[in-house]
Amino acid sequence: MNVLIRFFKKTTVFALMMIGAFILTSLNANFAGINADSLVNNQAAYNNIAAKYKIGDVVQISSNAESETNGYSLVNHRNWIGTIVSVSPENQASSSAWEYDIEYPDGEHNVHVAEQDIATIPAKCKIGDVVQINSNAESETNGYSLVNHRNWVGTVVSASPKAHASSAWEYDIEYPDGEHNEYVAEQDIVTIPAKYKIGDVVQINSNAESETNGYLLVNHRNWVGTIVSASPKAHANSAWEYDVKYLDGEHNEHVAEQDMSYAVKYNHPDATDANTYFYGYCTYYAKQQAPYIGNGWGNANQWADTARRHGYTVNNIPAENIVVVFAGGQAGADPTFGCVAIVRKIEGNRILIQEMDGTAGFGKTDYRWVDNANDYEYIH
């Protein structure tokens, strides 16, 4: 009986030990499963962040990039431009949720570039921009020669991302004759700013033939007017066209940049667009309209003598669109400081002047006729 009792005790203890071991094994397995599932779920949640870039995007490797997610160095490819050819979730310890395969124009790849190490490049030009083909341009991105179109002016009609040499974009350029270069790399063009601005006084060139719309300019050669609007327009050698309004109210609305020039000359050392005279006075407006005049010439009645000292021609012969100087009290000028104005028209021995701070008041401009034109001094 005692033997039997001892047998049952041992058997019971062994059974309990086996049951305990089974329970512990099950618990460990469950906890392990929970931890594994948590990691998977956490990674999945991390990778639920939408990819910032997509296949086909043109991107640039950051200037501080160190390495790909697999440890391959990116230092020698910093600032390189390429195209994304594949996108994959990034499972390594990284601040990026995605990695990208970047293909460069030479065919080389970086296959595991982290999202943090790339950036897209915005296009420098937009549809409608007037641009010029660079003088050293060789070929389009498809290999078509650009040599015969160097310095041509055209309008951007489409823009597409394209990694090519140092460019991230290519453009379809349409020229005034209707011809196109459809794959011009960004590095081979430059936008052209307008030469003139609204308010500039210009003169139609003596050899001008017609406006950009074909309207004749022959009868308006040498006419002087004010620019009231400017629009980009590729036409012959011009990148812009202008609406020019004349004194009689007539307009030429589509004058190409090549067919006009400043009504005042810039052929003096003191010439500058900068204007340091105080706004509202006659000196400010005269300088604004006649950039060939220098700054710091003093009061209006001092301009003629100052101009002589600076090498300008000063005499009593009027000419359109130059500065006339009135001594104190002369022709209604201020008795102390005199007056300066712009000559707009000559009829016999009288001149039509445009001035600020005259009969219209401080800061305002108006026109008036002045007799005895040869009594005053003119700065040429």
UniProtKB/TrEMBL annotation:
Record flagged with keyword Signal: yes
Location of the Peptidase C51 domain: 257-380
Q: What Pfam families would the database entry show? A: CHAP
Q: Which UniProt keywords apply?
A: Signal
Q: Which Gene3D superfamilies does the UniProt record give?
A: endopeptidase domain like (from Nostoc punctiforme)
User: Record keywords: Signal included?
Assistant: yes
The record's annotation in PROSITE patterns points to: CHAP (PS50911)
Record's signal peptide: 1-31
Q: Which domain of life is it from?
A: Bacteria
Record-linked InterPro entries? CHAP_dom (IPR007921), Papain-like_cys_pep_sf (IPR038765), PcsB-like (IPR009148)
Q: What is this protein called?
A: Peptidase C51 domain-containing protein
- The organism named in the record is Weissella oryzae (strain DSM 25784 / JCM 18191 / LMG 30913 / SG25)
